Amino acid sequence: MADLQDELLFATGVGELDEGLVLARPDPARTQPSTGEPDEETLARARALLAAHPVADGYNGLSRALRGLTYYDLELGENAVCTDVPRLRAGHVGALLWSLHPADGADGDGPVGAVLRRLDLAGSVIRAYPESLRAAHSASEVADARHCGRVAVLLGPADAPAMGDSLEILRALYTLGLRVLTLTGVSWASEAGLTRFGEQVVREMNRVGMVADLSGACDATIRGTLGVSKAPVLCARSAARALRPHPANLSDDVLAALGAAKGLCLVPLTAEQTGPTVRDVADHLDHVRAVAGPHSVGLSGTYDCSAAHPQELPDASCYPRLVAELLDRGWPESDVALLTWGNMQRVLRSVEFAARAARQRRGPSGARIADLDGPRAPAALPG
């Protein structure tokens, strides 16, 4: 029933299911940027909207940032990081995807051991703050955490080398809580696209219920994954290449393909990928919404990842300022609700639905990279 509700939500928009929330949808071509700071009325409207539809932040590096601190207190506030409980509350953040990507040069372990250590650290941080943070492994657990006044934390994305080219390790990582895997840095998802083993990885991710992250992947891998996957994918840190030619940003044709596949582009709040001001970020959100559709755009704070942020968005408390900018541009509240919360919930539920269907059809895959992508044996000589 939840999945049927999600399909209705996708078709009608969040606001159309909540009377009193819907505004007329403006023509995207007529949407204009604001010319200055939002007034208090618009900020109050933004905060009220976020109270009903909080932010599901698609990429946060807090657990990684805490590794370098000998002492921290996230409940009282921690100046050494951009994300703590007071700022999450002020920003109306209801859910976070915690990156398990390694910091540059930070991990001396092999990729499998490194991700296990990062999973352990993330779990320890969450358990240390039970009144504020709650581990979540599904869309329903994310919703439950929000209803209990906790910030839901989903683990991932992690880098694809963490699965060691082994579907058995992939399944073990899922059992340990990993929910998002970035398909880069491996031989089976490269400039040439997905290999036969890469296709098997995507199918097994569909079967267990792990989300594929395609940020930083080449266009061939993105298109290959969209062709194979029976579940929506996301790009955890990608903006519009048409506005800013960063290698992790997406071209318009890829954005359109992502939208057609009901995937999700999470626009990062970083100066490098989107620009130095809140208006630059909003320009990217406008563009992705226009090209991929309002059902395929989300937010990726990218806080505590050693990235510079737009001057008006320095930490996780600043989401009301961004939402106010969008409201000033004429975004309907229904589209803002999709941006902040609805789209992420839809993707998570759709991935879970696809996994249940796949598990009814087949068991765990025993495919091995050496069998599918290894060198062909030489033909036997006659005689």
Automatic annotation (TrEMBL):
Q: Which SUPFAM superfamilies match?
A: Metallo-dependent hydrolases (SSF51556)
Q: Which GO terms describe its biological process?
A: proteolysis
- The entry's protein name is Dipeptidase
Provide the residue span(s) of the region labelled Disordered.
364-383
* Source domain of life: Bacteria
Q: Which GO terms describe its molecular function?
A: metallodipeptidase activity
Gene3D superfamilies the record matches? Metal-dependent hydrolases (3.20.20.140)
